[in-house]
Amino acid sequence: MKGPGDRFDGWTSVAVALTGGYLLLVIWPLVMVLINSFAGGGEFSLAGFEKFFSSRLYYGTLTNSILVTVCVTVLALVVAFPLAYFMTMFRIGGSRSIQMLILASMMSPPFIGAYSWILLLGNNGMITKFIEDTLGFKPPSIYGFAGIVLVLTLQLVPLIFTYLMGAWRTIDVSLLEASESMGITGWRRAVQVISPLLWPTVLAGSLLVFVRAFADFGTPMLIGQGFRTVPVLIYSSFVGEVSIDKSFAAAVSVIVIAVTLAVFLLQRYLVSRRTFSMTALRSIEPRRLPGWRGVAVHIYVYGFLTLALAPLVVVVFSSFRKTLYGQLVDGFSLDSYVDSQRDILRYVGNTFGIGITALIILVVIAVLVAYLTVRRKGALSGTLDTMTMVPYVVPGLVIGIALVTAFSQGPFMLTGTFAIMVIALAIRRLPYSVRSTTALMYQLNPSIEEAATSLGASKFRTLVRIIIPALAPGILSGAILSWVTIITELSTTLFLYNTSTQTLSLGIYAEVIRGQLGTAAALSTVLLVLTMLSLILLMKLPGGQKELRV
Amino acid sequence: MTSITLRSLRKEYNGQVAIPNLDLDIHDGEFFTLLGPSGCGKTTLLRMIAGFNSIEAGTISFDDVVINDRSPAARNIGMVFQSYALFPQMTAAKNVAFGLQTRNIERAESIRRVEAALESVHMAHLKDRLPGEMSGGQQQRVALARALVIQPAVLLMDEPLSNLDAKLRVEMRDTIREAQREAGITTVYVTHDQEEAMAVSDRIAVMSMGVVQQVGSPAEIYRNPANRFVAEFIGKTNLIVRDLHQRDGVTTLDLGEGVSVDVTSTIAPGVSGRVQVSVRPEAVRAGGSGLQAEVVEETFLGSHSQIRARLSTGETIEFLEFSRRASLWERGEKVVLQLDTEMLTYFDAETGASIMQGAKL
């Protein structure tokens, strides 16, 4: 059959060009990693894999990672579900501000969380010292497993929380009233009626938490110390604290991708077994909860908020403290800013230069891919859609390795250039952008496009004059969200930068590793301010708040 | 002015035949309606004429020029969609002006034409509103103006009124009819609402399962339906099964209880045996002499009542009665039904095809 999707026109060329670009910049580098993982010394071998599974030192990182990830995912759910439930069902004082602040904590870079918990509970941390001085004993160490779980859980609860809040808005209040009329209320209703409705959302959110926790590199690197996770192993074997073994790093990367992919497929399978769509005609109205229960709910919500925001407050506070040889000491000054002002300017300049270029490319590609997958369903656009989703299951660190592997020699010598940074960031963020733009595109009635065509507009004119302007508010708020994740991205670009392309987040990482805590705090504060300003801008946009739900 | 000719048209979706083989002639300046239940292929056909759907076989011609391979943009059509499809980011005036811009019409002229078009649908006062700030009816008026302002060769409308409430629908269909008459544009209109079709159309094509059942003026298809499907779909009707009797060259239909009709000159020659009789509600009157029946239910509808009665054969007959001051019919009350035999139509009991004289057998 010849459908409109099979028609050859300008869009076909776009699809072919995009597919080509993806094959070159995403698929080929990943294939190189795969080849490397099976190639020891120029011929086929499983040496990398054998090495990994031969020593506890190596395969232990996998069990560590899985342990951390499962703990974080479960904990995040356990904490987030009541949070979302309370926020939806009951009137909480300052509810709007709470939601904004929770979002802000989600958007802040994860490694800043790790770093500031060190400032609080580390060997020289504020709380550690306070307890030592007043109570005379040393509190339990923040380093290792507990610290990683604490930091990642606090980081990822907001993620599941926003997912759940979004899903809750689709539940019609009549469903709750119906269950009430049958005598099912309170927690029984939450478990029997609401939970099944939220199940797909919970699965989707959990997958995201799992993938992020599993792939996170900054947190275990900073706070893990002896407790090593897989991304740390990949990093150290690739960069070589002891010895460089690229084939081994590639093998571990392949194992990581395999695990993430398995979880991803499992989630897809579970979701596909129960899909339903809901739209709420009347959303749930929060009601006042009187008495001690109201107080308890407030304590829960504000307690979490305090924990989630503590790292941010600590970082900003620390940036104004005096430092001595990089360590924070008593007293306040602006030295951390003044002394590193040249670095700050360089980092900020790079962040904007690289970030905005990546963002523009990202938005253009996302719009094109979304259009192709929604309006031109076919083999080519299907392939394209699948390919854009690849970086979703591939950890940032592995994408970095893949790009280094593919573009550090031969015809495409790009490592250390501006271009490779832009490419890496764009690739990393594309799955999210494509998804949100695709969702927007689905909401746009196809008749609108047909109307433009029937009035004599060409395909290009329809895209530029009708489709993009109609989707502009959504595209813009999506772009700001992407911008925030671009400026806070660390792991993807870790292997790709040099001093002339070092961004803020890379600068913070370098300073923390170098032990320059004051400078790191100052840089983190700058990054946080940038993030907050972007989020405030997003809030001001029409429809921008809706965008923040996921 | 444009006539549309469809020849041996075929449409498949993934191997499923939606329209097997369709011929249709739509005349110059005519208001032509494709009418049928949902899934009958009427919207598919309209979108083939517009160029949004592919054509698997056959031809579509505007004024005898085959336009199969022309893109929708090159067909010079105006289209009105069920969902209005106004560009959400543009005001009413900008929406209407869009089609003129692609035609490189000079600015002053464009402004004049936009205003005139909005005026013709009584929307000039809301020209600066965004679609989101307009009601459904207002949006559809703007959509109509947008389709008309480019002076298309053909105006295509896909269930333009079905998202509107009942009262607005009646109002809008007058606007549509008026605007179409004024512009004199050949119009193809799709609807599933037979009353709406009757109200606006010059001619109607009744479709079912991708096949045109009958083409004719509203009165023709109502008075002389080509088959049982059309009779039942257009207006209401009661179908009862009776026998034909032939004696001495005279064919009579025995309605029962001694009532019979001479149908020699109404029914096509050579037909005999069982037939289906279509009795329109307005062909039935209570009182006088006729068939014995018992009232089952009366539905009071304001200006008139709809009464359902059961014949002694068990068949049900529905008929209408203007409202009276006096009390309503009682359930179980005896009633004699007199049939206006002039208004009866007859179908083959097996095939459902019309067996009236002049019908294609």
Automatic annotation (TrEMBL), chain B:
Signal peptide residues on this chain, from the entry's feature table: none
Name this polypeptide is given: ABC transporter ATP-binding protein
Coiled coil (UniProt feature): none
Assigned protein family: Belongs to the ABC transporter superfamily.
Keyword Secreted carried by entry: no
Domain annotation ABC transporter: ranges: 4-234
Keywords from the UniProt entry: ATP-binding, Cell membrane, Membrane, Nucleotide-binding, Translocase, Transport
Pfam assignment, any one: ABC_tran
Keyword Thylakoid recorded: no
Source organism per UniProt: Devosia rhodophyticola
GO molecular function: ATP binding
SMART domains: AAA
